[in-house]
Amino acid sequence: MTGESLVRAFYSGKNFFITGGTGFVGLCLIEKILRCIPDSGKIYLLMRPKKGKEISERLNEFPGHPVFEKLLENHSKDIFNKLIPVSGDVGVEDLGLSPEDRQLLVDNVNVVIHSAATLDFEEGLKPTVKINVLGTKRILELCKQIKDLKVMVHVSSAYVNSFLKEAEEKIYETPGDVDSVINLVNRLSDEALEDMEKTILRGHPNTYTFTKHLAEHEVKNCSNLFPCTIVRPSMIVASWKEPVIGWTCSKVGPQGFLMGAAKGVVRRLPLSTENIADYIPVDVVINQLLVAGWHAAKQKSGLTVYHCTTSTQNPFRWNMLNSVVNEMLHNYPLKSAVWYPHLQFVPSLFLFRISAIFVHFFPAILLDMLLRITGGKPILFRLHKNVWNSLARLETFIFSEWRFHNPNTRELATQLNSVDEDLFYINISSIYWIEYFVNLHLGVRRYLNKESEKSIPAAKTKDAILKVVHILWQVMIIVLLWFIFAAIFGFTMLQSCWAPAIIYYLYTLL
After folding, report:
1. Mapping DSSP to helix (H, G, I), strand (E, B) and coil, where does residue 351 land?
2. Over the range 425-441, which residues count as b (16 or more CB within 10 Å of their CB) and which as e?
3. Mean pLDDT of 70-91
4. Which of 140, 141, 250, 368 shows its CA 20 to 30 Å from the CA of 152?
5. DSSP 57-78
6. What is the torsion angle, in degrees rounded to the nearest 10, for the CA atoms of residue 254, residue 255, residue 261 and residue 267?
């Protein structure tokens, strides 16, 4: 049996129902199914109108998305006929489904993959409970009605247990009674919920991890009714191998700040370089969802939890990139850069805030003034202000280290035959992190900053010009501070000729 894919054979002819299909994970999942499981049945996508576009219009945009480039090299656009949009919303009663659409799903769906969630760490309890908890309950109610459900796969998060520094692949004691939390949310105002938030969260750092933890218990309660499984990814980042090396459409985590660093806008980053940062490529997450679903369907009963993580198997630390991160930014610069790129890691929020005043806000004021003069929209000062305001909520995740043990995932990898090991790879032991981050940077350059490799020569010319401008800016700042120092203490510039060296040294510490 090693000559055929057992995972692909299981999904052959099966109809999928996917929530969150227009997000980072959802798009990659759809692409993988269409490309690697060509004999699958229809893929029903729960979608809602957005930005004035009906769901049919949103679906028509799929073939133009970069994630499908590789798929369309070997298939015509007709392959997208497998995608069936279903109008609905996990945050609405009964998923917002019409009776006809609900019956369509009940009669035809075999595999449910629930990935829709609100990921905003700063969101209040009302929206996160409505989407992450009630949305999951509504999906499970639908699963109970589906006539021939083979498996339900729930996409959770490794950080549902972030109140622990080491977590196992099990469901920990519930942080609260689901019905009581729902009643509170329905009964109290946003202001009252905010006042009670710390008490309600019971050690959770934010509403996201709290509600995703509650959602896992909803899945657990249904584990004796139909085959189901939970996959917990950590921070999901650009693709490792598929569909294109470095592909991403997410600005979260390292993708976002490398996007800003390449522009020259983000110059300091608060983090502990010695701590493990648990990142997992999106293509590995997709493979694990499909493999976990295949395995759970074989088991028929029980609930297995999988950590889709790297912290205990192939850990990454930012000090691995200390010597190469700026080299990477200048080897593959941006033509659209607005300042000379230079990224430094700062070990505390206090030091970051001091540095940000000089290396983020002052240049942002200057560049925003230039944008106003040239008729552009000033955005840099506001961008840095938003980052500044969000740091308090993110501090736990910036400076903490977690270890997510993954024996279930390692065991799952051993269940794959040689064909599935290649087709649905979930073993992350061979990721070489420096090479991976160079590819991630190139992916960010292409897919987020929208610059092709053809622009690199012109970008290098601009990079050299920006370097000269940056040096002149530093000289101007040092001379200005030198003048101010001399004026305050009654020295002439010549008498304080030693001051520039000290000022420059202090400036480099920022």
Report:
1. helix
2. bbbbeebebeebbbbbb
3. 94
4. 250
5. HHHHTGGGSGGGHHHHHHS-GG
6. -30
Residues 427-459 have pLDDT tens digits of 999 999 999 999 999 999 999 999 999 999 999
CB count, 10 Å around CB of 122? 12
DSSP-based three-state secondary structure for 197: helix
Q: Say how many CA atoms lie within 13 Å of 231 toward its Cβ.
A: 31
- Cis bond leading into 127, ω under 30°? no
Question: Using an 8 Å Cβ cutoff, are 82 and 39 in contact?
Answer: no
Distance of alpha carbon 412 from alpha carbon 395, whole angstroms: 34
Structure tokens at 470: 């940056």
Q: One-letter amino acid identity for 4?
A: E
CA–CA gap between residue 260 and residue 258 (Å, rounded)? 5
Tens digit of each residue's pLDDT (9 = 90 or more) over 38-65 = 999 999 999 998 878 899 999 999 999 9
Nearest to 71 by CA among 37, 23, 43: 37
pLDDT (0 to 100) of residue 24 = 95
Phi, psi of 146 (to 5 degrees): -60, 130
| Residues in Cβ contact with 100 at an 8 Å cutoff, skipping those fewer than 6 apart | none
